[in-house]
Amino acid sequence: MNATPLPLARRLLPGGRAAVIGLPYLWLLAFFLAPFLIVLKISVSEMENVSFKDLLTLQDGVLQLSLRFGNYLYVLQDELYFATYLASVKYAAATTLLCLAIGYPFAYFMARAPKTLQPALLMLVMLPFWTSFLLRVYAWKALLGEQGWVAELLIALQVDDLLLAAGLIATEGKLMNTPFSLVLGMVYTYLPFMILPLYANLSKMDLRLLEAAQDLGATPALAFWKVTVPLSKAGIIAGSMLVFIPCVGEFVIPELLGGPQTLMIGRVLWDEFFSNNDWPMAATVAVLMILLIIVPLALFNRYQAQAQEKRA
Amino acid sequence: MNRTVFGTGFARRFGQGWLGAGYLFLYLPIVALVIFSFNDSPIPTVWNGFTLKWYAVLAQDREMLAGLWLSLQIAFMTACGSVVLGTLAAFALVKYRRFRGRTLFSGMVNAPLVMPEVIVGLSLLLMLVSVQRALGFPERGMMTIWLGHLLLGMAYATVVVQARLQDLNPQLEEAAMDLGARPHQVFALVTLPMIAQALVSAWLLTFTISLDDVVLSAFLSGPGSTTMPLVIFSRARLGMNPSVNAMATVVIVIVATGVVAASWLIARAERQRALAMAEAQRAGG
User: Fold this and answer.
1) So what's the ipTM on this one?
2) What residues of B are in contact with residue A224 (Cβ under 8 Å)?
3) B145 touches chain A (CB under 8 A)
4) What is the rounded distance in angstroms from the CA atom of residue B54 to the CA atom of residue B234?
5) Binary contact (B123, A141; C-beta < 8 A)
């Protein structure tokens, strides 16, 4: 074996390289990218009985391209659709901000806890992530429902009056199936996605920078604002995108915890597909949803790529 | 350092309080489900004495048990497939800094992590339907659900394995190459043992993701292939269901045991490796 010359090993590599890159690449092209192109196609297709008309037809020597933009026009002109898109972005943005407001101090205190405790603290954040998300969301149904523990507590503390004044619940004492329960469920579900990248970022920070800032006369608050926060920008962006993008299209949480007034775009897509059986319309809603998240998605991808380059 | 960051005792207590409240928030629903499952009352939040009757109900619940069995099979296949595809993708991204279409590749690997599942599910289904119309297969069922879960699982597995690969010292592999090992030998004898624990984590993570998935399964399932989360979801829509609470407790116990056992084994292996490394360095240096 020792006699095997190095050039042979080198010559063997290209074959390995082609397989290592090619296999997952082709797989993703076939099952991730191609389906989107099909969705795009179906969103402009005309239904013909139960199947779709081909976009390009050759008839009597005439090549015809027929694109049907009716669905797009309908969605863009319909007020309910517009309001739903707007509401989805609103709920997702509120969830992201709340996750940041709760998660940033959380990650910060985790990163500043005694070093020996940190692995356990991290494990405790990841553990709920391993136990079923569906079941945890389902548990909130009981906790916030009538006679639910959390509901009783919030009512006893008169938080419900506050929520009522803010317009987050419709009637006093009823917390379930409201914008409040929806956002609470989303914050609960996505909080670990905010904490983990922030913790990864904050725990690697060079604490001497803070000492330097304080030696130069900055108060702890000023040092935090001028040093810690800017240095954790990458973590803030990553966490926010990990929360915002999936929240825009969330289906399970609005379905279980939301109410009739809390329409979200993921639910509309689901209903178009499963209840109305209108596949082109569902595809149109999907395409418009992708347009809505394409900028955050590009931001997320750029951050991921940057983080990977930096580590290497 | 702690002194300047936490400053006074008040700041430290505030930090501890924040962490405590955060963990309470994260764990409350899990603890509540376990308690509900032992509650002898039709209303889950009103305690009416201890009972095991919901577990007896669950044991008779054919729909739920069939769903659980199907879900476990799919989760097993998903975890295995995701680790293979994810490891390949992670290798491609870490070992080959430049190849044509790398940006598109890394974009496609990362996107499923955040892409709303309704979009992924709908697009996969519409493609499978198109393929089925052209070729006559595949029928919707276990295999199509597996395909969808694999897409999601691969993305997570790639992230986990990639992070580990980046921390590896490339000189070890180069040394093996210099000593005449062929690429597959380098992989099997040097790289694989070093990334083994990342593979275990990725396997467990993708297993639980698959076991939990509702949206992709709903789009990709066919008649007779109702997974456990689909059963739970359809009952949860109608309200609380004691048999679901019992099922939840069983799932939580299984997953928690698996995760704790795995992380204990990984930590032990890590310690042994660190010891061996220190030993080797002492002997060598």
Assistant:
1) 0.85
2) none
3) no
4) 18
5) no
Structure tokens at B112: 């499923």
Beta strand pairing call for A62-65 and A56-59: antiparallel
Closest CA to B73 of B182, B225, B262, B183: B225
CATH number at residue B158: 1.10.3720.10
* Residue B3 maps to a domain: no
Domain-located, residue B254: yes
Kindly report whether the peptide bond that precedes residue B138 is cis, defined as omega within 30 degrees of 0.
yes
Q: State the residue range of the domain holding B260.
A: 62-284
Please give the full DSSP string across chain A, using - where no structure is assigned.
Answer: -TTS-HHHHHHHHHHHHHHHHHHHHHHHIIIIIHHHHHHHHHHTPPEETTEEPPSEEEETTEEEE----HHHHHHHH-HHHHHHHHHHHHHHHHHHHHHHHHHHHHHHHHHTS-TTTHHHHHHHHHHHHHS-HHHHHHHHHHHHSTT-HHHHHHHHTTHHHHHHHTTSSSSTT--TTSHHHHHHHHHHHHHHHHHHHHHHHHTTS-THHHHHHHHTT--HHHHIIIIIHHHTHHHHHHHHHHHHHHHHT--HHHHHH--TT---HHHHHHHHHHTS--HHHHHHHHHHHHHHHHHHHHHHHHHHHHHHHHH-
Chain A contact for B193, CB < 8 A? no
Domain map (residue ranges) of chain A: 6-65, 78-311
**A252-268 residue pLDDT tens:** 999 999 888 788 999 99
Q: Does domain A78-311 fall into CATH 1.10.3720.10?
A: yes
Contact A110 B183 (CB under 8 A): no
Condensed to tens digits (0 to 9), the pLDDT of residues B86-97 reads 999 998 888 887
CA A11 to chain CA mean position, Å = 43
Would you say residue B8 lies in a domain?
A: no
Residue A190 and residue A247 in contact, taking contact as beta carbons nearer than 8 Å: yes
A304 to chain B, any CB pair closer than 8 A? The answer is yes
Q: Is residue B45 part of a domain?
A: no
Q: What's the first-to-final CA gap in chain A, in angstroms?
A: 31
pLDDT tens for each residue of B223-265: 888 999 999 999 888 877 788 889 888 888 888 888 788 878 8
Query: What is the least distance, in Å, from the CA of A10 to any CA of chain B?
Result: 9
DSSP codes joined into one string, B213-229? --HHHHHH--TT---HH
Q: State the total domains in chain B.
A: 1
Evaluate whether B131 touches B223 at the Cβ level (below 8 Å).
no
